[in-house]
Automatic annotation (TrEMBL):
Keywords: Carbohydrate metabolism, Cytoplasm, Isomerase, Metal-binding, Zinc. Zn(2+) binds at residues 60, 64, 171, 179. Its EC number is 5.3.1.28. The keyword Metal-binding applies. Pathway: Carbohydrate biosynthesis; D-glycero-D-manno-heptose 7-phosphate biosynthesis; D-glycero-alpha-D-manno-heptose 7-phosphate and D-glycero-beta-D-manno-heptose 7-phosphate from sedoheptulose 7-phosphate: step 1/1. This is Phosphoheptose isomerase. Binds 1 zinc ion per subunit. The gene is gmhA. PANTHER family: DNAA INITIATOR-ASSOCIATING PROTEIN DIAA (PTHR30390:SF6), SEDOHEPTULOSE 7-PHOSPHATE ISOMERASE / DNAA INITIATOR-ASSOCIATING FACTOR FOR REPLICATION INITIATION (PTHR30390). One of its GO terms (biological process) is D-glycero-D-manno-heptose 7-phosphate biosynthetic process. PROSITE patterns: SIS (PS51464). Belongs to the SIS family. GmhA subfamily.
Amino acid sequence: MKAYIDNEFAKALANMQALAGDAALQQDLQRAVELCVRALQGGRKLLFAGNGGSAADAQHWAGELVSRFYYDRPGLAAIALTTDSSILTAIGNDYGYDYTFARQLEALGQAGDVFVAISTSGNSPNILRAAEAARARGVHVVGFTGRGGGKLAPLADICFRMPSDETPRIQEGHEFVGHLLCALIESRMFPHDAG
């Protein structure tokens, strides 16, 4: 058991070191922050979606922005499209699971909004349909995927590809980069003197 634990720590550390050394990812993070801040300053909103653990990330990050991250400040317009069971089951029943997020993008998305699309494989059909619906409405798409990017990468304005093919490592990377995104949006929207 100790060997397994040591190996998992080693893989997690290697994953974080790869992220820390990725200059392109850091540039993309700055671009994504600018995109989100521009949307929020323009009276637009951020929309988040994913499946399973990625649904949890969508809710987590929307919560960090609506409530607070590092410090108290006004709430920011962020919506997780994963939370309304009546809407999700109605769309699933009437149109099929592949449309669970696309239909919501059609109803709620406005030009200038940002859709944060989370898929470890980059190939989740309902995320791909949502990204297509977003683009059709002038909604920017920020993707979170694994190393390959899948079919989501070409649909995204910016795509954060984690340096791994293992779902746990991809999700750990998503959580870290997602937290950075929330913290930087918060600090840009409401500068705070830490002293």
